[in-house]
TrEMBL record:
This is Cadherin. Residues 1033-1212 form the Laminin G domain. One of its GO terms (biological process) is intracellular protein localization. Keywords: Calcium, Cell adhesion, Disulfide bond, EGF-like domain, Glycoprotein, Membrane, Repeat, Signal, Transmembrane, Transmembrane helix. InterPro entries: Cadherin-like_dom, Cadherin-like_sf, Cadherin_CS, ConA-like_dom_sf, EGF, Laminin_G, Shg-like_Ig-like. One of its GO terms (cellular component) is plasma membrane.
Length: 1212
């Protein structure tokens, strides 16, 4: 039994099967019909059955009893099984609340109705069974109207408790609760309903029934007369002048109260008849409670109840479970159990659902079946060799006359079952051969390698033979598959340890055994590497090559038994030592070049790995380490080891500056003590101002930092070796500042770019005063000028100790004049006060300007030099760059912003990255900025005064430096600015830089509509003429002399370019992706060109290591547009015309040289080129040079890696 509504995994029971053979393992499984929902699970090892379904005993599912069939199967050969079928009864729980027959009740009482009279009957039903369906009623005491009524807790009869005190038309409203209780009397499930009682005039009487069906009706479940009147009701209206009434069969909320219209009401005049509307089923509903109401013209209503009981009939045929076979061993005595068959009948009552069994064929003299349990037993002893199976026809029938057939017989079904006669183990297994042998098993054979298979035969088909090695398996060297008899290697074999094995193998069928002998002979192979003897370390003098052998290396082969035989060993060394050592087959090790003992490239001991390989260098190898120790010679001069720089204060009298120290990488005998002196070749000013005594450096004069800030003093140092070594080291001497100069008023300028107006509090520069001293900041105090302080403190803050000015967050664009007082006090002069003025220009830069910025990478220039005035000129390099950009783009200087000056370090050195933007309206695209500035590279360098490494900073341009495969440039930007400080000018710019990401650039996932298009249901609605998925213009025309620039492409593992051509002339350059100029500092010459030559497409491609030319030779109809698709991959280049995959119209080639990707940081050019390609090709030494003649015709549908290009707005 199982309670309903239990969760998955609820234990049901454990089944246990017994096998008389204790060696057998039993496995359990459930027998189900195909497609049947799994409602139970069984543990195949333990037989524990759990639920896989949540059962519901109540309407409408009505899972009251479930049959489970379990099969138990052993692991013998053949596998035998048995089945058992049992019934699981689903027990009811109180999980359903009562359901009222009506959603709400509307009743009536007359004005003069007396107390204790009936008002109405409140009725509810409960889908639970038994005690769980017992319902009690009560009035919820929630308002004063409740005191006028009482209700019978058992039958729901509502009566009046005191006289009616309200006028006709008014109401009493109460709430009735229906509930059921548990055995302890506690309420478990409940429901509530509103009852409205209307007061009517005393003379407005309700109708009354004159004829009702008092006794309960009884119907067989097979009753199907839909026209017969089952019960009739008559009523009077109580209104003489309006005798008509209206009957209604109340549709309840449960099936027992006619929720599915099982019964219907038909009215003729004042008579109502109840008729059957749907078929009955005792197994679904056993009793109906129908409520018939009648209403008169006053809308007064009375009700009566009709009970209809359904009688169970034998209308369901028994059904067998899915078990169709059984097994009995041969030679078993009569009465031996064979199997149990099981059928079930879903009728609701006995004897309709009691099933009995009988055999109906000629085999009934061989088998007997228990009519009650379905257990089949044998009547005779069977011989499998005579007959190995029988078929039984079993009849299952219930125990009462069928309601389906009018023949007086019970319902029945038949099923054919197969009974198999199984074999018994009564014969001994026999090996075909008593002796087996296998030779030449190599000692290096792989583990698990199969060597031989032994086979034993058994006349018993049921016998399961298992094999085992019972003797001779030394070290578990071998293993045997217990089922197949295959013998294989279990552990590594060693000829030198054991050369042959004698295995005793046994076959066992569970009762009887037999054995055989297997001989295995091991074959010797070269499985031992050579072994070195007498390896020793040697010592030689550094920087010398000894004559002859440094040492002789010796080794032997353990696989050769006689050590006096030739060992056939060759010696090798690691290829990295090829320029250092050599060794011959005799083991003579020689030096090929001198070895250095001293740092930074030398070592006091050198370690070499020598390999000995047997079989003349083709066999196994053993490495060994040879260490060569080097004796020191005096071959290095000492060097200064003082911490640099040494600081000597200005205005100090002559005296000791520092004690000199030195280090020598040679050994101690060739090192200290050291001798120090001023180098004889030193300038006279050094000799006049400095002197060395022993190991001490002295100042001979008093120094002035404002005259010279730093000196480089050449010190010659000699060691004490047998042949002394000497060299000159430079001592860096800085003259320390002394505040001995009075400051003077100063002016400075600070320019700040405020990114999106969101810069946080930012240090933008220091207050500048004219003062030759530069270490005197602690002597100064900085203060706001009181007269102008109020104009500035809301936007700027001042550090009184350092003079650092901080721009506060929220400062808007504009010019700010900041005035300060600086106070200075020193021992060299009296306290004094000067003024300082700082002009701060703040300019807000929008995000669009940064996103569309161009970029330039300069070489050999610092950020401070870039924003400072160049000596001998009136402008800074930054100013000159701004002017050069304005001239090139033909825009006003005010429309050009150079907003990023950023020092960048990488493996190739230190560079200065500069970003800029320019606009007419709107901001120019970066492809235009980089393209036009790159085209005028030489003029740009001349204007600014510094060398340019690249225009359009591209971290992917050098193949393999940042990414092995795909690479794209990503612009990172921050509202935290970067600052460059100098004395009279400072620059605070936007922190924006490009970084390489090792992915292929993909179309943006955001769905943006271009060219005034707008989004409608995740698609762009585009103006006329803009047909692309994002409202791109798909076509552009050329007339042979123009070109258009578009965004460049990034290196990808696969790049796919597609464009549609409608040419008007047979020759012309369709597309060019490549450099705009020759820059010797950036050795990148990659390019791609698509051109028409005599009407046929030609592709030129250079990955930087050689140009290839792919020509399409298949003619196509002239005057019609055609599509060219280019597929670039690391190993192949493909050009396809009009998607034709035939060999005649596909062109394929491989790139030249080692490079694998197209690396270009210039714009894509359509219709022609902005540069002279003949001149450029000669500088880059291209094998094939694209033509300079422009394309004439129309280009459409340019896509690169699924990105559709907007051809409406070329860059120029």
């Amino acid at each position: 039994m199982l309670r309903e509504e239990q969760p998955f995994g609820t234990p049901v029971l454990r089944v246990i099967a017994i096998d008389l053979n204790p060696r057998q393992t039993i496995e359990y499984s459930l027998v189900t019909t195909p497609g049947e929902q799994a409602r139970f699970r069984i543990d195949k090892s333990t037989g524990d059955i759990t639920t896989a379904h949540i059962f519901d005993r109540d309407e409408p599912i009505r899972e009251k009893e479930i049959y489970i069939t379990v099969r138990a199967t052993d692991n013998g050969r053949p596998r035998l099984d048995d089945v058992c079928t049992f019934k699981v009864t689903i027990l009811d729980i109180n999980d359903n609340p009562p359901v009222f027959d009506k959603v709400r009740y509307e009743e009536s009482v007359t004005k003069d109705m007396k107390a204790n009279l009936r008002v109405a009957t409140i009725s509810a039903t409960d889908m639970d069974d038994g005690d769980n369906s017992i319902i009690k009623y009560e009035i919820v005491q929630q308002n004063p109207d409740s005191s006028y009524f009482k209700i019978n807790e058992n039958n729901g009869l509502l009566t009046l408790t005191k006289p009616v005190d309200r006028s006709p038309g008014q109401y009493y409203s109460i709430r009735v609760r229906a509930y059921n209780v548990d055995p302890q009397g506690e309420a478990v499930q409940d429901a509530e309903v509103d009852v409205k009682v209307r007061v009517v005039e005393s003379n407005k009487l309700p109708p009354y029934f004159t004829r009702v069906q008092a006794a309960a009706l009884v119907l067989n479940e097979t009753f199907k007369n839909y026209t017969e009147s089952l019960a009739e009701f008559e009523a009077e209206s109580n209104i003489p002048e309006k005798p008509e009434v209206i009957f209604e069969l109340i549709q309840g909320r449960a099936e027992q109260t006619n929720s599915k219209n099982t019964f219907l009401l038909e009215q003729i005049n004042n008579t109502a008849s109840i008729k059957l509307g749907k078929t009955l089923d005792y197994e679904t509903v056993t009793e109906y409670t129908l409520t018939v109401s009648v209403k008169n013209s006053y809308n007064n209503v009375v009700e009566t109840v009709l009970k209809i009981k359904v009688l169970d009939e034998n209308d369901i045929i028994p059904v067998f479970t899915e078990v169709t076979s059984g097994t009995i061993p041969e030679n078993e005595p009569p009465g031996t159990p064979v199997m149990q068959v099981r059928a079930y009948d879903l009728d609701g009552t006995p004897a309709n659902n009691i099933v009995s069994y009988r055999i109906e064929d000629e085999n009934q003299q061989l088998f007997h079946i228990d009519s009650r349990t379905g257990s089949i037993t044998s009547r005779v002893e069977f011989d499998r060799e005579a007959t190995d199976s029988y078929h039984l026809k079993i009849i299952a029938e219930d125990n009462s006359p069928s309601a389906l057939y009018s023949n007086g017989k019970p319902n029945s079904c038949s099923q054919l079952f197969t009974i198999k006669i199984s074999d018994k183990n009564d014969h001994k297994p026999r090996f075909a051969k008593g002796l087996l042998a296998t030779e030449d098993v190599s000692e290096d054979s792989d583990i698990n390698m199969t060597l031989i298979e032994v086979k034993a035969l058994d006349q018993d088909t049921a016998s399961l033979i298992t094999y085992s090695i019972i003797e001779g398996n030394v070290g578990d060297a071998f293993k045997i598959d217990e089922h197949t008899g295959r013998i294989s290697i279990n552990n590594w074999l060693d000829y030198e340890t054991i050369r042959d094995y004698k295995l005793i193998v046994q076959a066992d069928d569970g009762i009887f055994q037999d054995s055989t002998t297997v001989y295995i002979k091991i074959k010797n192979v070269n499985d031992n590497p050579p072994r070195f003897t007498g390896i020793r370390n040697v010592t030689i003098q550094e920087e010398t090559i000894p004559s002859g052998c440094i040492m002789t290396v010796q080794a032997y082969d353990p696989d050769i038994e006689n050590r006096t035989d030739p060992q056939l060993i060759r010696f090798f060394y690691v290829v990295e030592y090829d320029d250092v050592i050599e060794i011959d087959d005799g083991g003579c090790l020689r030096l090929k070049r001198v070895l250095d003992r001293d740092p930074p490239l030398g070592f006091n001991r050198w370690q070499f790995i020598i390999t000995a390989t047997d079989e003349d260098g083709a066999g196994k190898s053993t490495p060994s380490t040879v260490i060569i120790y080097l004796e020191d010679i005096n071959d290095n001069a000492p060097r200064l080891s003082n911490a640099m720089p040494v600081v000597w204060g200005e205005n100090r009298p002559p005296g000791l500056i520092v004690r000199l120290t030195a280090e020598d990488v040679d050994d101690a005998q060739n090192g200290p003590p050291f001798h120090f002196s001023i180098d004889s070749n030193a300038p006279d000013e050094i000799k006049e101002r400095f002197q060395v005594q022993n190991d001490e450096l002295y100042a001979l004069v008093e120094f002035d930092r404002e005259e010279q800030k730093e000196y480089r003093v050449p010190i010659r140092i000699s060691d004490s070796g047998e042949e002394p070594m000497s060299d000159v080291s430079i001592l860096q001497l800085v003259i320390g500042d002394d505040n001995d100069n009075e400051m003077r008023p100063g002016e400075s300028r600070i320019f700040v770019y405020n990114y999106k107006g969101e810069s946080p509090n930012t240090e933008v520069g220091r207050v500048y005063v004219d003062d030759p001293d530069d270490w005197d900041l602690p002597d100064k105090t900085f203060m706001w000028d009181d007269a102008t302080r109020h104009q500035s403190v809301d936007f700027f803050d001042l550090n009184r100790d350092t003079g650092m000015i901080t721009m506060l967050q929220g400062t808007r664009g504009g010019n700010y004049e900041l005035n300060f007082h600086v106070i200075e006090q020193s021992s060299h002069f009296p306290r004094h006060n000067v003024t300082a003025k700082v002009t701060v220009t703040v300019k807000e830069i929008p995000e669009e300007a940064v996103d569309k910025s161009g970029s330039i990478r300069f070489h050999n220039v610092t950020a401070e030099e870039f924003v400072s005035r160049t000596p001998g000129q009136l402008t800074t390099p930054k100013d000159r760059l701004q002017a050069s950009i304005a001239n090139t783009l033909n825009v006003s200087r005010e429309n050009v912003d150079v907003f990023t000056v950023l020092k960048r370090d990488n493996v190739n050195g230190t560079f200065l990255d500069v970003r800029f933007s320019a606009h007419g309206s709107p901001y120019y695209a970066p492809e235009r900025l980089n393209g036009m500035m790159g085209y005028r590279l030489r003029q740009l360098e001349e204007d600014v005064g510094f060398s340019v490494l690249m225009v359009g900073i591209d971290e992917c341009i050098e193949e393999g430096r940042n990414c092995e495969l795909s690479c794209k440039n990503t612009l990172y930007k921050s509202n935290v600015p970067i600052a460059v400080y100098t004395n009279t000018s400072s620059f605070v710019g936007v922190n924006a830089f490009v970084q390489a990401e090792c992915v292929c650039e993909a179309p943006s996932p955001s769905f943006t509509c271009l060219n005034r298009g707008f989004l409608v249901n995740d698609r762009c609605s585009c103006p006329e003429g803009f047909e692309g998925p994002h409202c791109e213009m798909l076509g552009i025309g050329f007339y042979g002399s123009g070109y258009a620039l578009y965004p460049p492409i990034s290196p990808c593992n696969m790049t796919r370019i597609s464009v549609e051509l409608s040419p008007q002339q047979e020759d012309g350059l369709v597309m060019y992706i490549g450099p705009l100029n020759y820059n010797p500092r950036l050795p990148v010459q990659d390019f791609l060109a698509l051109e028409l030559v005599k009407g046929l497409p030609v592709l030129l491609l250079d990955y930087g290591s050689g140009t290839i030319r792919i020509e399409h030779r298949h003619r196509f109809p002239q005057g019609k547009p055609f599509t060219v698709e280019i597929v670039l991959q690391p190993q192949t280049i493909e050009m396809i015309v009009d998607n034709c995959k035939l060999s005649t119209c596909m062109s394929l080639d491989a790139p030249k040289g080692p490079n694998r990707f197209l690396n270009v940081n210039a714009p894509l050019q359509l219709g022609g080129a902005a540069v002279n390609l003949d001149y450029l090709g000669s500088l880059f030494n291209w094998t094939y040079v694209p033509q300079n003649k422009g394309f004439s015709g129309c280009l459409r549908n340019l896509t690169i890696n699924e990105r559709t290009y907007d051809l409406r707005a070329p860059i120029c």
